[in-house]
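Justification of resources, computational component.

The compute hours requested in this renewal are based largely on the per-chain cost of generating structure records like the one below. Each record pairs the submitted sequence with a full structure-token output. That output is archived, and it is also reused by downstream analysis tasks.
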Amino acid sequence: MCQYRFHSWRCPFEPEPGKELCIFHLPLDQKEPKEFYKHLANYLLALYEKNPTPERKKPWIVSERDEKLLDHYLRFVTPGEDWKFTGFVFPDMD
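The structure output for this chain reads:
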């Protein structure tokens, strides 16, 4: 499990291979922006699938859909659960 903690909350995602943090919590110099945004897009898609509402649009994330990553993040999303991006480290987007 990722070692990122914020008060009593602990990140549920797996760490990157050979690291203690998941791709969302790794420092910028330890991740590739394209890979980060691919993971983020699929996490957002998982959130959308488990929590559909008509007012939510799927912009750029649709083109990043990856069935393997989406299935991975669907395991972490509970319908009705708050969206959590606590401590995510966002690289600049192209």
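The two ends are 30 Å apart (CA to CA). The CA atoms of residues 22 and 55 lie 30 Å apart.
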